[in-house]
Amino acid sequence: IHIEVLKNEIFYFWFKILEMKKITTTFIFLIFTSALFAQQFGIKAGLNLTNVYGDDKVFLDDDFTNPLKPGAKITVFAQFGEESTRFTTNVGISQKGFVMKDQYEDPLGSVKAKGTYHLNYLDLNTSVNYFVSDVLSINLGAGLSILLNGKNTLDYYDVTGTAVGLFEDFEDDAEIGEDISGIDFGVSLGSTFYITEKLFLDANYYLGLATLDPDGDDSIYNNAITVSCGYVF
Q: Which residue has the higher pLDDT, 222 or 8?
């Protein structure tokens, strides 16, 4: 019985690896194939405001806060189509993650702490762009993100009274595949406004659909608001 269970676990493990490789290969193929037929190329850079959502998102206590985490995003893109409906493929680097803040106060002292999860991804995505006018498009897309590295930092600040000297800042690198899943995928909705034929502003919301838990047991997912400025060459 134990041997059969082990065989099943090994089979499932390799099946998931092959499945992820198949998905990744498909996205890369779509990105580069569409780029061959692109009619224009460009670059955009901007601000990511990221967080997580899900049933297993943990709140420590009533004093716990969960603000948006700022990060950078830079993307190169290829777009084809000249009618009201166009297609865009994007390849870029984005900083995601989330922030947790907590504080404890009493007459003898106080402690404020901030835990930050830094997640850096290689993003591969494609979108359909519907132009409602000559200068404005509505964008619907899907994407795959590969985690490049991750880090968790815990910073203690504004420590007073009897708490002084009791706490130390902490930093730890995440083990991809053990501490956090190496693959994320999701959908996006946004809009692009063209200031000129070459210069534009872009706003986008991303909703992750793959849990960050590598075992798949916990329900916790990425989401992000991105505002960027781009240029078409």
A: 222
Q: What pLDDT, in 10s, does the model give residues 154-193?
A: 998 888 888 788 888 989 998 888 889 999 999 999 999 9
Distance between CA atoms of 200 and 196, rounded to whole angstroms? 7
The count of other CB atoms within 10 Å of the CB of residue 133 is 9
**Nearest-CA neighbor of 46 among 190, 185, 164, 184?**
190
Cα separation, 150 vs 139, in Å, equals 29
**Alpha-carbon distance 189 to 101, whole Å?**
29
% helix / strand / coil in the chain, to the nearest 5?
15, 60, 25
Longest dimension (CA), the chain: 68
The model's pTM: 0.81
Cα–Cα distance measured from residue 126 to residue 85, given in angstroms and rounded to the nearest whole number: 13
Query: Residue 98 is encoded by which pair of tokens?
Result: 């989330």
Q: What is the pLDDT of residues 67-76, one digit of tens each?
A: 999 999 999 9
pLDDT exceeds 80 at position 203 = yes
CA distance 98 to 5: 37
HSE-up of residue 219 (Cα within 13 Å, Cβ side): 4
* Cα distances (angstroms) measured from residue 130 to each of 88, 123, 137, 142, 144: 11, 22, 5, 15, 21
β-bridge pairing 170-173 and 109-131: unpaired
SS3 assignment, position 73: strand
